[in-house]
Every structure is written in C-alpha cells, then in structure tokens.
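#lab-general

N.A. 3:47 PM
ok so I finally got the sequence cleaned up, no stray characters, all 302 residues accounted for. can someone with queue access submit it? mine expired

B.Y. 3:52 PM
send it over

N.A. 3:53 PM
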Amino acid sequence: MKVLVADDDPGSLLVAKAAVDRSGHECLTARDGDEAWAMFQEHQPDVVVTDWMMPGRDGPALCRAIRERPADLYTYIVLLTSQGSRDDVLAGLQAGADDYVTKPLDPFVLHTRLLVAKRVTTLHADLAHYRKILTQQARTDPLTGLNNRLKLTEDLTQLHVRSRRYEEQYCIAMCDVDNFKSYNDIYGHQAGDQALQAVGAALATTARNTDGVYRYGGEEFLLIFPNQSPHGAKDMLERALHAIRALNITHSGDPTGHLTLSAGISAFTPGHHLDADTVLGEADAALYTAKATGRNRVALAQ
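B.Y. 4:20 PM
back already:
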C-alpha cells in the first residue's frame, strides 16, 4: 500500500515512517496539514495516518477534505491524537477517520492498524471493480454486446442538453432488419441471433468513434451522430447498408435473397427546439417511410 503520514513533530514522524517501512509499505511524509492535502491529491495514497494538531489543516479538517473529494477507491484514515477523551475520539471519527491511535505512537499498534487498513482497502477495491462490471452489464445488450436502451436514454439526454446549450446539431438513425420475422421462421431463432450479432457488428464497425450504436429492441438498432448533418448521417447509413449486404446472409424470404436493413434518419438542428423524444419519433416515422417504399434503403425525415 501507499501510506501518507502527516505530523508536525519530527520525532513522531520518524517513528511512524519507520513503522510503515517495516510493515512493507511505501511511505510518504508531510510536515503539516496543507502539505499533506497537496500530497494526497498528487499521490492518492491508500492510507493516511495524520496527527490531530498540525499547522494549516488539522487532522479532522484533513479527514473532511478527503471524504468530500469524489473518488472511486477508498482511503483508510488513522488519526493520531494525544487527546484521548471520548468526545475528541468521536469528533475525529465523525470527521471521517476510520480509527485512532493515541500518542506517543507505539509502532506495533500502528502495524496492526495497517493490517486492518489493507483488508478494508482491498475490500473496497473489489467492490468498486464489481460495481463497475455490473454498471457495464446493466447498460449492455447481452446478445450483440452493443449499448442497450438504458444507455441510449442516458446518452441521448446528455447529447440533447449539450446540443441545445451550444447550438449544435445531431442526428438519430432508427434501423430495422428487413423481413426478420420470416428469417426466424425459415432458419430458426439461433440463426436469427447470429444474424443480429453480425448486423450489430457491421453497424459498430461503420460508425465513427464518436457515434453511439445501440440495440433498440428485437431486430431494431439505433444510432446517434453528434455534430452530424442529415446528409452526412445518410452517407454513413448507406455505407452501413452496403456492409450488411456484403455479409451475404442468405434470406429466401426477402426479395433480394439476402438479409438487408432499412433506416430512417431525423435531425436536431439549432433554432428548432424539439425535445429528444420528438426527434426519436421522427426517426421512427422516417424508418416507416423506408419500409413502405421498398425496404433496403435510407429515408430522411421531412
């Protein structure tokens, strides 16, 4: 672990550093609260061992500053104090300390606190890791690996707010695999799942890094294009439709003999204060137009 020790007393600082070193941890030292806060922000230590009374920020103030700072990982804080009253101990814990040690410092006692700190910080690191995985899973379509509708709602809301604020345009494309029900009827649902995976991969490969690609539901996909004109979005969708045709997925129930895709595009433009749901609805209407005029094509919303 990386341990930051803060104490304005040189003797106590030397004892604490020696105890940390003997415990096999990396030790950083600070001689007052302000230096400790600066070093904490720079090095992000796993553990902070801080004296209560110091120039600049005192120990409780340093605890509060650490706890108020957003962080993915947890910092374990041990407060060193010669003030052993119950009220002082309670005040230190309420400020954010995890434990306290009374001075003069006993190296063995500090060693035991570091063992506890190691367990606690490891547990928090594991929890943060699993929380990140669960967050990703909650926003990922399990079949295609694309973003799902929950992630779409979050991304589209942020994009719409930003685009209105900075008067930028964006486009939405609603896509649907043509005659997919008959594909499932003819070839089976397992083949249908494989076809959806192939279509999703083709869309993701064709899109820019700044674009968003989502599985909207069933055989529907949705793409969002920040800072893109309708004609620019249409050119990209034409390339995507070509990539899907190039997959050569046989579909005897489609007039072309292969699996194809239709798409409808709508746009949000500065000065036209539509909400995101309206833009989404216009893309859906444009998709209906593409379907009604022969499928395997891209239509722009009027």
